[in-house]
Design goal:
CATH topology of chain A: Rossmann fold
Number of strands of chain A: 12
Number of domains of chain B: 2
Number of helices of chain A: 12
Shape of chain A: globular
CATH architecture of chain A: 3-Layer(aba) Sandwich
CATH class of the largest domain in chain B: Alpha Beta
Oligomer: heterodimer
CATH class of chain A: Alpha Beta
Largest sheet of chain A: 8 strands, mixed
CATH architecture of the largest domain in chain B: 3-Layer(aba) Sandwich
Strand content of chain A: 15-25%
Strand order of the largest sheet of chain B: 6-7-8-3-9-10-12-11
CATH topology of the largest domain in chain B: Rossmann fold
Number of strands of chain B: 12
Helix content of chain B: 25-40%
Radius of gyration of chain A: 21 Å
CATH superfamily of chain A: P-loop containing nucleotide triphosphate hydrolases
Largest sheet of chain B: 8 strands, mixed
Chain lengths: 332, 342
């Protein structure tokens, strides 16, 4: 990969906290930083409650950020914007949702669902052009033009997800956040949707933030992957490097927990099984947030928050195991 | 090995407003003692209806028992009265469900829910049932069981709720445990814990397990035999090695090809085109005919017979007929040589 890659998004120390009541705050996203380059797919993985969906939504300004900033084309996403500015900004960022049943309005025809963005942004001069655009979008995602007159309930899950994709594409975005777009689908249909997303990326020069909990699918579709744990980023690397050489103990455990479709491997494999459950993000552990489940944790992990550092080229990890300053304390 | 359960030509339908949906169509399989049989398939393939029918949990109506038999302990379950079923459920056959939050009773403490079966089936006193409950919670790895047994399900995490469900299911030492997508709602690290626990408990108690799942990784990890369901029929069955290393049905090939391989570079996934058949109007012949790249004329009209490929593997596909052309499985369906990192 060349050094001249253009940063499409720069995310710096992004935080999103939800206030529960006067005393408690849920720190869903608690200071994550990363860049997304133009034309790549950045995968974001983690278990439920790790803040990956909140991160995706905050990046799009569906949520206001509590702290930190997101720069898109060098412009601050969360800055004060006039209605007009906001409108032109939302056109360039779109989202595909997890649940294809809940994210399509049941009282609108597929044609109107897809054309909603076209109407709002005035992208079609007349009715004929609108219909043409919708039809070409339907074809792009592998549906028939007559499907446009039907309602969402007449479609299967995989087809609905295609409608959601067509809707996102309708306004010619640069960047799409796909929040668990395949989790609700069957395996054979998942592969269809993933192949479609990949093809569209090539044809339209799209950049994706692909959020999922299924590490094997993320590995397949992403160029780079970030692993989140309890609101923090544990590790970022290219997907190949992350799989072949996971450095953070949490990533290692996550990879080793995925059951592989190969009985021989499953029988002989040594697993790293992490004990217990994910702690509450309302009162996360001190120091490193993974320490309560980490097999390598020592005293220092409870005292000092590990810094997120680039230990190898393009491989960022937040763990004391690799920090020379703590080499002595981590040896025990 | 002794056969514990034998299902013969089972068919179950549902009366709906428009038509009769034939969810399970003429399936036969058996379960040996102490084994784990996985039933794999996509949503709507009939795997959950099959599992529920073994405990007669299919609501009737709208469900309808069309034909066949389920022989357990020499007796046909389909012929039993509701009263007789009550003495089998939870005692000889028990079940754990996909979503532990909605299948536990939110208004009862976990302890009470474990004790229910023990008091009914084993005539234990309240005190004895409570003590056994503590033992069971300890067995399934819940820390501090004396305190936890008094808590309600909402005070448990997702993984712990599934552990509690397993404790309830195993309370009366059932001969068969049916696990319907037991780990689908859980995160991978918790899934690994639960699968480990199930294996450990099976070693201890010798319970036979029927595992319903759509995840081939879980199958490879936990099963000894596999039945692949599609469109209400079992299309292929065999030992776990036969299904993964020597699959013969194009649908099994398709399933194996749709899974991303962790060690492979980003080539296209081999998706199965189209979508599953409408079981209100199932295809006359093989249910997979509309999506099968090798479909022939005969497939549209006639359901193929099972061909016995070994004493354990049976496949229903016209490609195995001697008059059919030779077809090799696609490369994407070949399992093996996976390197494990991390």
């Amino acid at each position: 990969m060349a050094e001249t890659r253009e940063k499409l998004l720069e995310i710096k120390n992004l935080k999103k906290h939800f206030r529960i009541d006067r005393k408690h705050t849920l720190r869903a996203v608690d200071g994550i930083s990363f860049d997304i380059y133009r034309g790549e797919t950045f995968g974001l993985v983690g278990e439920s409650g790790c803040g990956k969906s909140t991160a995706g939504r905050t990046i799009l300004r569906l949520y206001d950020a509590s702290d930190g900033e997101v720069k898109f084309h060098g412009e601050n996403v969360h800055a004060r914007k006039s209605k007009k500015e906001l409108k032109s900004f939302t056109r360039s960022m779109q989202m595909i949702f997890q649940d294809p049943y809940a994210s399509l309005n049941p009282r609108m025809t597929v044609k109107d669902i897809i054309a909603e963005g076209i109407d709002i942004h005035g992208l079609a001069k007349n009715k004929k052009e609108r219909t043409e655009r919708v039809n070409s979008l339907l074809k792009t995602v592998g549906l028939n033009t007559e499907h446009g007159n039907r309602y969402p309930h007449e479609f299967s899950g995989g087809q609905r997800q295609r409608i959601g994709i067509a809707r996102a594409l309708a306004v010619d975005p640069d960047f799409i956040v796909a929040d668990e777009p395949i989790s609700a689908l069957d395996v054979s249909i998942q592969a269809q949707v993933v192949n479609l997303l990949k093809r569209l990326q090539k044809d339209h020069g799209l950049t994706y933030l692909f959020i999922a909990h299924d590490l094997s699918m993320v590995k397949h579709i992403s160029d780079r992957v970030g692993v989140m744990y309890l609101g923090n980023m544990a590790e970022i690397a290219t997907s190949k490097e992350l799989y072949e050489n996971p450095m953070h103990p949490y990533t290692q455990a996550l990879l080793s927990a995925i059951p592989l479709a190969d009985p021989e491997v499953e029988r002989t494999r040594e697993r790293i099984i992490v004990e217990g459950d994910v702690p509450s993000p309302i009162s996360p552990p001190s120091g490193c947030r993974f320490r309560t489940r980490c097999p390598f944790a020592t005293d220092i992990c409870a005292k000092v928050v590990p810094e997120f550092q680039e230990y190898k080229k393009e491989h960022w990890v937040a763990c004391h195991l690799y920090d020379e300053r703590y080499a002595d304390q981590m040896k025990q | 090995m002794k056969k514990l359960l034998e299902v013969k030509d089972l068919s179950i339908s549902f009366d709906t407003y428009g038509a009769e949906v034939q969810a399970v169509r003429n399936i036969s399989f058996h379960l040996d003692e102490k084994e784990t049989l996985a039933i794999v398939g996509e949503s709507g393939s009939g795997k959950s209806v099959t599992a529920q029918s073994l405990m007669r949990l299919v609501p009737m109506p709208p469900g309808k028992f069309v034909g066949g038999s389920i022989i357990f302990d020499g007796e046909d379950i389909t012929q039993k009265s509701e009263k007789q079923m009550e003495s089998i459920r939870g005692k000889d056959i028990s079940m754990i469900f996909q979503d532990p939050m909605t299948s536990l009773n939110p208004t009862m403490t976990v302890g009470k829910q474990i004790a229910e079966g023990l008091i009914k089936h084993q005539n234990l006193s309240k005190k004895a049932a409570h003590d056994r409950g503590v033992e069971l919670l300890k067995l399934v790895g819940i820390p501090n069981p004396e305190a936890r047994i008094k808590q309600y399900p909402h005070q448990y995490s997702g993984g712990m709720r599934q552990r509690a469900m397993i404790a309830i299911a195993l309370a009366c030492n059932p001969k068969i445990l049916i696990a319907d997508e037991p780990t689908t709602a859980l995160d991978v690290t918790i899934q690994a814990q639960i699968l480990d626990l199930m294996r450990e408990l099976q070693d201890k108690t010798g319970t036979a397990i029927i595992l319903i799942t759509h995840d081939l990784g879980v199958v490879a990890n936990a099963a000894s035999r596999v039945a692949v369901m599609y469109g209400g029929k079992i299309v292929e069955t065999g030992t776990v090695d036969e299904i993964f290393y020597n699959p013969k049905h194009p649908y099994t090939w398709g399933l194996l090809g749709s899974m991303p391989k962790l060690d492979a570079e980003g080539e296209e996934l081999q998706a199965i085109p189209g979508s599953p058949p409408d079981l209100a109007d199932p295809p006359k012949g093989c249910p997979f005919v509309t999506r099968c790249p090798y479909a022939m004329k005969v497939c549209e009209q006639h359901m193929p017979d099972y061909k016995e490929l070994s004493s354990t593997q049976k496949t229903a596909c016209w490609l195995l007929d001697e008059r059919a052309p030779d077809v090799e499985p696609p490369e994407s369906a070949i399992v093996g040589g996976t390197e494990v990192h991390g």
